[in-house]
Write a structure and sequence with these properties.
By secondary structure, this protein is an alpha+beta fold. It has 10 helices and 5 strands; from the N terminus they run H-H-H-H-E-H-H-H-E-E-E-E-H-H-H. The relative contact order is 0.09.
């Protein structure tokens, strides 16, 4: 027999049993209405048939609600009848104060004087990165970024990105003036030194080290005394400046290109 025919036969049997039980219940109810004793026996018989039938019984909470044991109906009735119930505030939601409330007790968040940016996992030696970081340490941010653009070292791009990120943090997150920022600190820390196998000739091998480092740049706003010093140095001429003064006012950028690496330009006289 085909599968769907077998399932159809079982469904027809269940429907027939249900119709038969319904007709029997109606006949018993009509005969039991004459006396209350027979009516009670009818309800007991119906409950017994309900549990012994092939149909799935209703969920437990339906039965509890019919018996009056569940309190959900009572809660719903109370909420519908009493419309003036004040809701209870959740402890997880912060209480919002109105605009016209007293703000005397509120603490004023102090403006940060220093902002930093950190980059980890730089795949370069700490000594090589520190050479470039020491070049711009103490400079104004604008001058430091300009100096790093003309510096021919691989670490200059990394230092440029970290200084740019520190300036963005100070401007957008803490409201500092980007034109008055100074590179207060720029230091390099040692990271993981990974050891790898270095294969040599004749079946021999050694150990090569892959160094890593982390760079931290701290920027701050220029003080009024430093602004006055910068104004004085810009006016002064033919004066030998100290190392700190040259960093505050770099009159000319420091060229890091080696002299022996330059290419000579052809002279116009020799070309004629």
């Amino acid at each position: 027999m085909v599968g769907w025919q077998r399932h159809l036969k079982s469904i027809v049997r269940l429907v027939g049993n249900a119709a038969k039980q319904k007709l029997t219940a109606q006949a018993n109810y009509s005969s039991a209405c004459s006396s209350p004793f027979l009516l009670g026996q009818f309800y007991v018989q119906q409950r017994t048939l309900a549990f012994s039938s092939n149909f799935t019984p209703s969920p437990l909470y339906h039965y509890l609600q019919e018996q009056g044991i569940s309190t959900s109906r009572r809660l719903l009735a109370d909420s519908s009848s009493d419309a003036n119930v004040t809701p209870v505030a959740s402890p997880l939601i912060p209480v919002s104060t109105p605009n016209n409330a007293n703000t005397e007790n509120q603490t004023v968040v102090a403006k940060r004087s220093k902002v930093q940016a950190v980059r980890k996992g730089i795949k370069q030696s700490p000594k090589k990165v520190n050479l470039v970081a020491a070049l711009v340490r103490g400079m104004r941010v604008e001058d430091a970024l300009l100096q790093l653009q003309v510096t021919i070292k691989r670490a200059s791009q990394t230092v440029y990105q970290v200084i740019h990120s520190a300036r963005a943090n100070a401007t957008h997150n803490h409201g500092l003036d980007p034109d008055r920022l100074l590179v207060a600190e720029a230091f390099v820390g040692k990271g993981f030194f990974k050891k790898r196998i270095s294969y040599h000739s004749k079946g021999r091998s050694g150990i090569k080290v892959r160094p890593e480092c982390r760079l931290t740049v701290v920027v701050r706003e220029i003080t009024p005394e430093e602004e006055a010093e910068i104004a004085r140095l810009k006016v002064a001429k033919f004066k030998k400046l100290t190392k700190q003064e040259r960093r505050l006012v770099p009159h000319k950028l420091i060229e890091t290109t080696p002299i022996w690496g330059r290419k000579r330009k052809p002279r116009e006289d020799s070309a004629v």
